[in-house]
UniProtKB/TrEMBL annotation:
Coiled coil: none annotated. It comes from Streptomyces katrae. Residues 157-249 form the Lon proteolytic domain. This is Lon proteolytic domain-containing protein. InterPro entries: Lon_proteolytic, Ribosomal_Su5_D2-typ_SF, Ribsml_uS5_D2-typ_fold_subgr. The lineage of its organism: Bacteria, Bacillati, Actinomycetota, Actinomycetes, Kitasatosporales. GO terms for biological process: proteolysis. One of its GO terms (molecular function) is ATP-dependent peptidase activity.
Length: 265
């Protein structure tokens, strides 16, 4: 025997259906969400000094006086243990000077704040070793004879690798280049580096371009795979140059100094 369904009046039915939806929105509005807010961070000239000590020190090879700047760029994000609610997320979402990012995109390793800080410092150390290997390989210098010391406090992660490498290349004299890389400009950029000179993507490039322009850069080296992200919020007066390798970056800067055309995004 079929049971008989009772038809509710339409307004009552709508109210009954809406109740779970409203409850869901209420929970979502109050629940912490796995996102962080990032903003443009400080930049640092790797050709300069940090806390009274040169960022790059070379022994075992002649070094030249450099002109201009090579500025590595950073972002600052809320901590890995922080959380945001839906209304806070909406407040930050539409601001061009901030980015709402998935927590795992900024802190992929998870763990406590202290564990993540230690991981970032280890990544920075590995990045510096790769930068030294890539630069000396490019310059055909014997790593047993030429030593490089890199000193930059309060910065973690691997994204300064490309700029460290370019700084070493620019510092070491006798590479047959006939001049420094910057041509007196303020050059900024980002990108990981591997020992063979391959440049890798890093994330947060839209915010890093803002940091670069804020601190006076006119040229920004960006991993080619992140061109579209870099263009999305590109500050006026900042020229983007896409690169996939150390050779790309050096060749582009040399061409820029000669007044020749360079790649663009």
């Amino acid at each position: 025997m079929l049971s008989r369904l009772t038809r509710l009046p339409r307004p009552t039915a709508l109210a009954v259906c809406a109740a779970p939806v409203l409850a869901l929105f209420a929970v979502a509005a109050l629940a912490p969400l796995p996102f962080v807010v990032a903003v443009p961070g400080p930049t640092a000239d790797v050709l300069g000094s940090d806390q009274g000590k040169p960022v790059i020190t070379v022994t075992g090879a002649p070094v030249r006086d450099t002109k201009g700047q090579l500025r590595m760029t950073t972002i600052r994000a809320t901590g890995p243990s922080s959380s945001m609610k839906l209304h806070e997320l909406v407040d930050h979402w539409f601001r061009s000077d901030q980015a709402v990012m998935p927590r795992e995109a900024v802190y992929p390793t998870g763990g406590s704040d202290k564990e993540i800080e230690q991981h970032n410092l280890e990544e920075m150390s590995q990045s510096q070793s790769a930068a030294e290997a890539a630069a000396l390989g490019y310059l055909h210098k014997d790593p047993k004879s030429v030593k490089v010391d890199l000193n930059l406090a309060d910065v973690g992660g691997p994204s300064a690798g490309l700029l460290f490498t370019l700084g070493i290349v620019d510092k070491i004299d006798g590479d047959g280049s006939g001049g420094d890389l910057t041509g007196g400009r303020s050059i900024a950029g980002t990108g990981t580096i591997s020992a063979d000179g391959t440049v890798g993507a890093v994330g947060g490039v839209g915010l890093k371009t803002q940091a670069a322009r804020r601190d006076g850069a006119t040229v920004f080296l960006v991993p080619k795979a992140e061109c579209s992200d870099a263009k999305s919020e590109l500050p006026e007066g900042l020229q983007l140059i896409p690169v996939t390798s150390l050779t790309d970056a050096v060749d582009a800067l040399r061409a820029l100094n000669r007044g020749e055309g360079v790649p663009s995004c």
